Amino acid sequence: MPHLRVLLVDDHKLVRDGIRYYIEDDENFSIVAEASSGEQALEIVQPGMVDVALVDINMTGMDGIACTQKLLALDANIKVLALSMLNESASIRGMLDSGAKGYVLKSAGPEEIKKALTIVHGGGTYYSPEVTETVMNSLAAGKEKDAKAGVLSTREIEVLNLIVKEYSNQEIADTLFISPRTVDAHKRNLLEKTGSKNVAGLVMFAVKHNLV
After folding, report:
1. Helix (H, G, I), strand (E, B), or coil: what is residue 144?
2. Could you tell me the pLDDT band of residue 134, with boundaries at 50, 70 and 90?
3. How high is the mean pLDDT of the chain?
4. I want to staple 116 with a disulfide (CB 3.0 to 4.6 A). Which of 28, 100, 104, 152 is the partner?
């Protein structure tokens, strides 16, 4: 197994100390640098210096998502492994979208942490099993919602925008030069395509997907 150089980025010293304690006695790993913030990490790291960066998701100042993006811009060969808590599924999605290759819980034991570092360094991905189902369900739900937004027609989006502006059916019809009956048909299609139960649900859908 090749020697693996690790960067720790976490604003809690106890977390950094714990991870260091876990892996510093293993000759296959070395912690080459620690940072208490994303900003500090970027000041320390030089291209070719780090193999894997363990990056906390939620930090004061620059968060883990921004830190991940900037680290990869600095050195595309760095592999990033997110340090997460159980309730961070939305943030984990942001980390993965930014280029992180997985996540490990802060409560993980030494063997799991070393396993995760090794897998990620080798080009694979690692996800702590305790939260994998929750996060994957969240990712799937997000993709489903994005897909729903993508199937709306141009006319349906126009109707949706006027619904958000609290136009009545008659006002929508007058604005778009269509009949109120056609407006009703568009509303039914919007409810079905977005999975919304009512007009309030349509408004929430429009805002969430930046359609207004």
Report:
1. helix
2. low
3. 86
4. 104
Q: How far is CA 25 from CA 49, 52, 108, 131, in A?
A: 20, 18, 17, 28
**Residues 100 and 40 both lie in one domain:** yes
Positive or negative, the Cα torsion across 10, 118, 100, 204? negative
The total number of structural domains that make up the chain:
2
Checking if the pLDDT of 168 tops 60, the result is yes
Same domain flag for 127 and 60 = yes
Pairwise CA distance, residues 27 & 76, whole Å: 25
What span, in angstroms and rounded, lies between the C-alpha atoms of 81 and 61? 19
What percent of the chain is predicted at pLDDT more than 70? 87
Q: How far is CA 4 from the centre of its chain?
A: 26
Find, among 161, 151, 162, 142, the residue nearest to 189 by Cα. 151
Q: Decide: helix, strand or coil at residue 165.
A: coil
Of 57-61, 121-125, 149-153, 195-199, the poorest mean pLDDT is in: 149-153
Residue 211's pLDDT is 75
Task: Give the count of alpha carbons within 13 A of 209, CB side only.
Answer: 23
Statement to judge: residues 50 and 107 lie in one domain: yes
Q: What is the 3-state secondary structure (H, E, C) of 26-88?
A: CCCEEEEEEECCHHHHHHHCCCCCCCEEEEECCCCCCCHHHHHHHHHHHCCCCEEEEEECCCC
